[in-house]
Amino acid sequence: MSVRLYPLRTGSVRLKAAQCARKPGGPLRVLVDPQWSDPLPIYAWLIDHPEGPIVVDTGETCRAMIPGYFPTWHPYYRWAVEMDVGEEDEIGHRLSRLGIAPSDVRTVVLTHFHTDHAGGLPHFPRSRIWVSSGELDVAQGFLGRIRGYLPNRWPSGLDLRKIPFGRESFGPFQAGYPLTQSGDVTIVPTPGHTPGHVSVLVSIDGVGYFLAGDASYSERALLESLPDGVTTDPRKAIETLERILLFASQRPLVYLPAHDPESVHRLETRKTLSILRGEGPGS
Ligand SMILES: [Zn+2]
User: Domains in the chain, please, with CATH?
Assistant: First the structure.
């Protein structure tokens, strides 16, 4: 059995234009920007692997449509985001349709804890949930809620595991944690969108598939090294995008952000980033 990669679309989200591409004023500008994006997909991913299925991100829950699920006191949820998630969009249904029971998924990786990536956690009460320690630190508790995370919505008793990144770098990335014995699935730190954001690299037949979470909202934003409007550290976000571009200049890489409408087309056609070897970022 070979490794297969499947998109799991868990509904749509509309964001402010100033969130998709940073404008002067940063996060405050996002709140007041009158311009909305089109509905963007919310993708999670299934890595159907001989060592067992791996899920990257869990998408949004349809409970997000219930008034009061999001904190009404939080300006971001009040003014800057609109979800559209049906019951059949939830990740449990998406997996079942592919013939995989969520209870068979032993390994889940969260790129970060934002609600449209962690909302499906209730489907995985017995899975091992890998998340970076930096992300766990900022997402928990009262301060986490102020930052827009919803730790009060996480199910209790989750088997949360901190990714044990070593000191050795992985290509241009500061570290890499191999998730499989065969070494074809690797978690890499991609901080910026959130301080502890990670991405997952899957290697299939000599092509790398980069499950980028929200490292950028689109391939175009990556190619232009454009940070988003909600990061608190745009410089770090740009640094991460440049690392990804450098990585893509060294091998064929299909770039798959969670909210890019073109991600699935690129996956199906194995459309790699066309960056000539040696050119590197910024050229
Ligand atoms: Zn996010």
Answer: 4-269 (3.60.15.10)
